[in-house]
């Protein structure tokens, strides 16, 4: 499906992470897809980072140290301990970051403060440099971590923006929460016009498709679970699990479940019917949507790469896991 799928778009602060998060390049050594992440230990470099937490939760902390900092491996010191379950390498994590060039001492920007969206960091996403994922690995919600990240765990020989090839990166992570991996709202009956949906133990939906396609005049939306979290607003960036089925062919054409990772994107970055299914719903809800061609891929002539014709009716089952204002950055 042609989603706009930003991965931590706010991390583009001061030009940092733009190339990596756009998928144009990846770190030479800082993206260990062939090795499990490990929890980093504190070291002299991370212990040298001083963090003054602001009085208000929406204000970035003040980060100071004597530059340059040097390290050959990612180090992480706990500034404030969190509570609850430890973050694992399979979680999606809501986190704020403050970035400083560890070699020059120059501030590079902050994300998730001053009213901007708190981003969801997918721990399994290897487009995000390993050092940033290591920074929050094994931490608990509420924790503040000072990490010092060498180029090999960051951006390798290419650097990024004002972070040069040999520069060390200081990242102070303010861990907000762990995003759930499936909707946890109260089960409700969507109505007789919707096909039956059953759930696997993992939460993945299975849809019992009627043989006869019934194309609605406009997108039909039914609730399978009623959540009680934040309400999705138009233009928000949402985090969801979803399964998309072409009713005409009976085939699943896209599903986050098969990738083992939820997806985050703005409601403006999807087909009209999908956006309608999201806006106005609450986090924790699971919805089913029947989308006619006019609000699906009809206007674009179909989606041949996914086997979707311009005349096909689509069905989506979507777990709404998180929502927030689409990110801006602070430098």
TrEMBL record:
Domain of life: Bacteria
Alphabetical list of Gene3D superfamilies matching this protein: 3.10.50.40
Signal peptide annotation: 1-24
The keyword Chaperone appears for this protein: no
Residue intervals of the PPIase FKBP-type domain: 90-179, 235-324
InterPro entries, sorted: PPIase_dom_sf, PPIase_FKBP_dom
Keywords on record: Isomerase, Rotamase, Signal
Protein EC: 5.2.1.8
GO molecular function, one term: peptidyl-prolyl cis-trans isomerase activity
Catalytic activity as recorded in UniProt: [protein]-peptidylproline (omega=180) = [protein]-peptidylproline (omega=0)
Homology family: Belongs to the FKBP-type PPIase family.
PANTHER family (UniProt xref): 39 KDA FK506-BINDING NUCLEAR PROTEIN, FKBP-TYPE PEPTIDYL-PROLYL CIS-TRANS ISOMERASE FKPA
Full protein name: peptidylprolyl isomerase
Biological source species: Schumannella soli
Source taxonomy: Bacteria, Bacillati, Actinomycetota, Actinomycetes, Micrococcales
């Amino acid at each position: 499906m042609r989603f706009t799928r930003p991965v931590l778009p706010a991390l583009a602060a001061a030009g940092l992470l733009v190339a990596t998060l756009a998928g144009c390049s990846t770190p030479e050594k800082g993206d260990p897809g062939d090795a499990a992440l490990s929890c980093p230990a504190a070291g002299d470099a991370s212990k040298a980072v001083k963090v003054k937490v602001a009085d208000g939760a929406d204000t970035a902390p003040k980060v100071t140290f004597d530059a340059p900092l040097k390290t050959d491996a990612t180090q992480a010191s706990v500034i404030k301990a969190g509570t609850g379950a430890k973050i694992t390498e399979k979680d999606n994590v809501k986190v704020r970051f403050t970035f400083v060039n560890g070699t020059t001492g120059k501030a590079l920007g902050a994300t998730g403060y001053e009213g901007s969206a708190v981003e969801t960091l997918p721990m399994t996403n290897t487009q995000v440099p390993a050092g940033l994922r290591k920074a929050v690995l094994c931490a608990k919600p509420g924790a503040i971590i000072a990490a010092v990240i060498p180029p090999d765990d960051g951006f390798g020989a290419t650097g990024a923006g004002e972070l040069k090839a040999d520069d060390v990166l200081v990242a102070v992570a303010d861990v907000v929460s762990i995003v759930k991996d499936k909707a946890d709202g109260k089960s409700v009956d969507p109505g007789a016009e919707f096909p039956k949906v059953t759930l696997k133990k993992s939460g993945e939906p299975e849809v019992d498709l009627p043989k006869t396609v019934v194309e609605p005049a406009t997108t039909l939306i039914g609730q399978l679970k009623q959540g009680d979290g934040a309400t999705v607003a138009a233009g928000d960036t949402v985090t969801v699990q979803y399964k998309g089925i072409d009713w005409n062919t009976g085939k699943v054409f896209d599903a986050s479940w098969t990738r083992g990772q939820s997806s985050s994107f703005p409601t403006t970055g999807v087909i009209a019917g999908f956006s309608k299914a999201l806006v106005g719903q609450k986090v924790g809800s699971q919805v089913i949507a029947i989308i006619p061609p006019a609000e699906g891929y009809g206007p674009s002539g179909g989606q041949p790469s996914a086997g979707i014709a311009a005349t096909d009716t689509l069905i989506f089952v979507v777990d709404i896991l998180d929502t927030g204002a689409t990110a801006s950055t602070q430098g």
